[in-house]
Amino acid sequence: MTPDPAWITGADRGAHHPSPHRPPRRSLPGHSHDPDRPDYADRGMELTRECRALRLWLPLFVHGLDAFTSTLDERLDLAGHAHTDLAADPLLELPWFPALSTVVLRPRDGGTAALLDRIHSTSAVRLSATRIAGRDWIRLCVFSHHTTRDHLRDALAVIHTAVRNHARPLRPQQIPTG
E strands of the chain, at which residues? Predict the structure, then answer.
């Protein structure tokens, strides 16, 4: 369905009703409405609300459903590849196979925050942390459509190197500052 140009431009004023999300004009002090002029406040996609439906509809309309399906499949494949690769490392604990595009991991010996600091000290990879059932975990999310298999390969190499060096403390010049 394409938007009606008359609705967007206000050319057909009689066909559209005022917004149900706003109070009647008489309750707005100092407001005078000329019936021969469009009131553009009543003609927004979702008025003052965030355009959630438009944000979904427009890319689907422009690129098509197949583009989104293939991109999502690729993200799921990358997450599965990352999980398989990281699960092969005996120093890491991965609690489950990712249902979507986020892989969670932690070092088996604890020290999740220290491992995350070591990974971030390279400035090549940015991961995030979370707490699940009272335990700290590191999250690797491969949802961005810009992430390629090469990016993931590089990120996995950084993680494996950081895990191997995890037992050695960081020197002060290696500690990330921001």
Answer: 92-93, 102-107, 128-132, 135-141
Are the beta carbons of 107 and 163 closer than 8 angstroms?
A: yes
Q: What's the pTM value of the predicted model, to 2 decimals? A: 0.62
- Edge-to-edge order in the sheet of strand 102-107: 92-93, 102-107, 135-141, 128-132
Domain residue limits at 52: 5-63
**pLDDT tens string 76-113:** 999 999 999 999 999 999 999 999 999 999 999 888 99
Domain annotation covers residue 161: yes
Question: In the structure encoding, which two tokens stand for residue 121, read together?
Answer: 């000290």
Q: In total, how many domains does the chain have?
A: 2
Distance between CA atoms of 20 and 30, rounded to whole angstroms?
20
Q: Which two tokens stand for residue 98?
A: 């990712």
Q: How far apart are the first and last CA of the chain?
A: 47
Helix, strand, coil percentages for the chain (3-state, nearest 5) = 45, 10, 45
Task: Evaluate whether residue 76 is within a structural domain.
Answer: yes
Instruction: Express each pLDDT in 115-147 by its tens digit.
Output: 999 999 987 889 999 999 989 999 999 888 888
Q: Which of 20, 43, 63 is the endpoint of a domain? A: 63
Q: Does residue 177 fall inside a structural domain?
A: no
* Residue whose C-alpha is closest to residue 135's, from 156, 104, 165, 159: 104
